[in-house]
Amino acid sequence: MFEFLIIFALVIFALGLRTFHHPLLRKAGAVAMLVATYGAGYFFTGSHWGGAVAVAGWFLLPWIEIVGRVRKLRLPLERRLEKRSPPNRERCPMLEDWTKEIEERGYEWVEDAGWQWGELDQFIRIFYHGERRTQACITHNEQGGIAFAFLSLTSRAKGGGTFTTWTNPFANSLRTPPGIHVLRRPDATSIDGIAGDHEDFLADHEVAEALEPMDGEALRERIQFEMRRQVEHNLDAGFIRLAGDGTFRYSWRGCFHMWWQVVKDMVRFA
User: Fold this and answer.
1) Which own/partner contact pairs does 134-137 have at CB distance under 8 Å and 24+ positions apart?
2) pLDDT score recorded for residue 78
3) pLDDT: is 64 or 145 the higher one?
4) Which of 130, 134, 95 is nearest to 114 (CA)?
5) 198: helix, coil or strand?
6) Distance (Å) of CA 150 to CA 98, 99, 170, 267
7) Average pLDDT of the residues in 190-200
8) Which of 59, 101, 131, 163 has its CA 20 to 30 A from that of 260?
9) pLDDT at 8
């Protein structure tokens, strides 16, 4: 009974720390939860190995989703972006608010586009700022009743190289091709939250003054080309394999890559 009270107290302490917004306190909460898990495994088995296995279970949980669902997916090699109507406010409540914020920063709406494959549905609202030579997007993803949206800013250098800052809460399941640089800010909730980071990102790579001007009307084709390039790169690297009928599936190497990305996120953003 005493052991149970210790574990219960640690869990409550961990959950309490996780309610704070300060990153150090949140990470301390994650560590406290791991300690509670280790203690539960140790008290239940009477072995330190039992505690270690219990902690490892947290990091092996993503494999259930990867092996049970992702491994079975068949995705299109070519994702054709077509003009689309936007989702309603119930499906994407932040769309209009984010649109207003982006336009207030001087970006002009270009078009709404998207693609759909089975349960997968992606909508993209594209903006462009001619003076900054930067593309802004609101992306809304839906799959099996689960939906999320994120913001992104993309600039392309004259000498090659694409630089994207986004709020995507999930790690990229495919490996990024050479020349594509991504800065993730999953805690940001507005375009203002990533605009400064994107400018610093460009300055760090010394391309802020050498950005390629883009034709706003051609942005949809450019986005589509970059998606295709990523698929081809991952085919060459063995992370995905052809599955017939114009589709691909994740290889075991790709599944391991995806799992490792999730684990890194668990540690980085805990």
Assistant:
1) 134/107, 134/198, 134/211, 135/214, 135/219, 136/102, 136/105, 136/107, 136/191, 137/223
2) 86
3) 64
4) 95
5) helix
6) 10, 12, 10, 21
7) 93
8) 163
9) 67
